[in-house]
Every structure is written in structure tokens, then in C-alpha cells.
Amino acid sequence: MSDLEFLSSEEVQHFLLENEDADPQKLLLNPPPQFKNQMTLVVDQIISRRKAKTKLPEWSHQKGVIFPPPLSLEQCSSPETAQYKSLLMSGELLVDLTGGMGVDTLAMCREFEQIVYVEHSEWLCDLFQHNYPQLGNSPIKVVNTSAEDYLNSFQGRGYFFIDPARRDVSKKQVFHFENCEPNVLEMLPLFQAKAERLLIKAAPMIDITLGLKQLQYVHQIHVVSVRNEVKEVLFLLDFKEISEPLIKCVNLRSEHPAFSFTLTGEKELQVVFSSVKKYLYDPNSSILKAGAFKSVADIYAVDKLAPNTHLYTSEQLIEGFPGRGFEVLEPDVSKKEIRKLLPDTKANVVTKNYPLKPEELKKRLKLKDGGDWFVIGYRDLHEVPRIAVSKRIW
Predict the structure, then answer these.
(1) What is the CATH class of 3-72?
(2) Of 59, 216, 288, 308, which one's alpha carbon is 20 to 30 angstroms from that of 30?
(3) pLDDT > 90 in the chain, percent
(4) Contact indicator for 244, 264 with CB cutoff of 8 Å
């Protein structure tokens, strides 16, 4: 019996439901006799199912779905980011060259007539072949081979998606395409010959400027955050149309509007610097990651505090600014004045281009977390460290 047949058996499925809240360590130390030799597989299912309840709720509620080990679940796309990808390409044929769990494949396949799932791992291929009929209606061709081998043998043209993984996550904290498998830089000539468009998923730590230079044919870049945490950077390549790439910043699960700009426009803009006025604004993480420091000031008609202090200010409230908005009580206070303004010593501490990290500043000011007030450490235009006390509006 294969691992997949074992995990999908009625006996194991019943055990998983009965023990979804059980302690994994206790199960490993004292496994039931019938599962003694395969208890690690069973325990991995219990752990993965727990993670799926928050990350992939639709999957966790679907009877008979088998999950990969917990690490694969941690690294897969969320439903929100997968759905966002489905908005970026549509056509006749989609090839997902790094299928994995298939979350992205299942989201994007709705926009295509034919879908091919390619995965080097035989286990993940078998898993997806088992799961996808229960999770979607589209017929999907499953191919167990490497991305490179499939692309080499591919005839015709189509749309491609690829999610390269770092070879050594522990040593390489910065994401570089040449340090990943598959190496998309080596594959570019083949993509140029065979792809209508190519969508590449990169990790949040990618150097966007370097990626643009290396990939050459970038049509758009999408910096995707979920609840103000950057989750992925998407490079959409078009080998027929070479133009100034549009960079789009989105913050899913928020009311922040999408924000778009170009690097040329960003470079040419002039911004106004000023001291703190009545309102302060902190852009969301996707805008900061994309480097739209001057563009966001220009579009929303706000002043910037300093070249390297990415906080913005205005005398009149700017509704709809894509980030946090604060009403300033005092723009520059001392430690002694903070004690008077915040007698209960409760505040949320934020620092931007400030000598101390939030935890260090909180400790120095002897503040406790909580309350409605925000203490914001920043450097002004003259590189002088200052502290503002404010109240969050949104």
C-alpha cells in the first residue's frame, strides 16, 4: 500500500478526525498499534490540517483531502495571493512549472481553457492528482518532471507560471534568482521562444531593481501584501512588448486602494519636506517595499519628513491614504513630557529612521503596550531624532 492509499483509507481518515486536537508528541511516543510503523505520516497530517484551518480553510473543510508535510504548507500561497495571481493572466493554455500543493494552479486555472501542472516531486504530483478533483472542476494534466525538462520539450506557445525556491534557505537570506531552483535566468531564452507571458513569484526579500535588470522583459511588477505584511513580489514578463514596467502595490484584506507608479517617474519627482503637521501617515508595507517614497507623496499631496524618513504629513486630513493615518497631539516631546501626556504609561511605539528600535524606545521611555496612543520616533530633515505623540485615525 502506498503512503497516499494509506492516508486516504477510511481508518486513517477517521483517526485524523477523532484526533485533530491531540498532542502530536504523545501520539509519536505512544502510537496505536495499527499505525505504529507509519505514525510520522499520520502526525504530519494532523499538524498540516491544523495549519490549513487558518491558511487554507476551503481545503481543511473538504473531506478526503490529503496534505503534504507541514513545511510545504507553510511555504505555499495563501488563497488571497493565489486569487490575485488569477487576475494577471488569461488565455488558452497555462503551464504551472512548479506545481507544489497546487494552490496557485487551482486559482489560475479558472482563466484558462487548458491547464498543465508540472512538479518534480513524485509525491506532490500524486498528492495533487488525488486532491484536485475534490477542490476544482477544471480538468488538469499532471506531469511529473522538472520545469527545465518540460520547457525543453514543450511545443507551441502558452502562458507560464513559476515559483523558484531558494536552494539553501538557512544560508541565503536574500532572494536571488541565480540561487534558486529552477534558475529562471538560465531559462529565459526558452521562455522568450515559447511564452506569451511569464509570471514569476519571488519572495518578499527580492531586490526589485536587480530583478528588473536580470529579467529584462518585465512588463509589470506586483508587490502583494496581506494585512500589511509583504507576502510575495510578482514579475510579469511580456516578451513581445518592451515598455517601462508598471509597479503595482496592493494590500489584500484591507481597505487600502491599490497604488501604481513607475521607477522613472519616481526618480524624476521632487517632494516637499516639512516638519510634522497636524496629521501623519505611514504607507503600507507594499508601497515601502516597492520604493514609491516620492510617488506616494506626489499622488496624495502630502509632505515628507526627510529623505530617509518614510513618514508623511499634512495640515488637512487626506482620506484614503494607503496606510496608517494619525492625528498628532505633540510633534516633538521629551521623555518627561511623555509621562505627563500619557499618565497611564500605555502606548504603541513605532520608529522610522530612528536610532532605537521600537522595543528599545519603549524600554527607555518606560512604556507598556496598549491604549489608543502612538509614540512615533523619527528623524527630521536635519537628521535630529524626535518623538511625536499621536492618535491613530485608521
Answers:
(1) mainly alpha
(2) 59
(3) 88
(4) yes
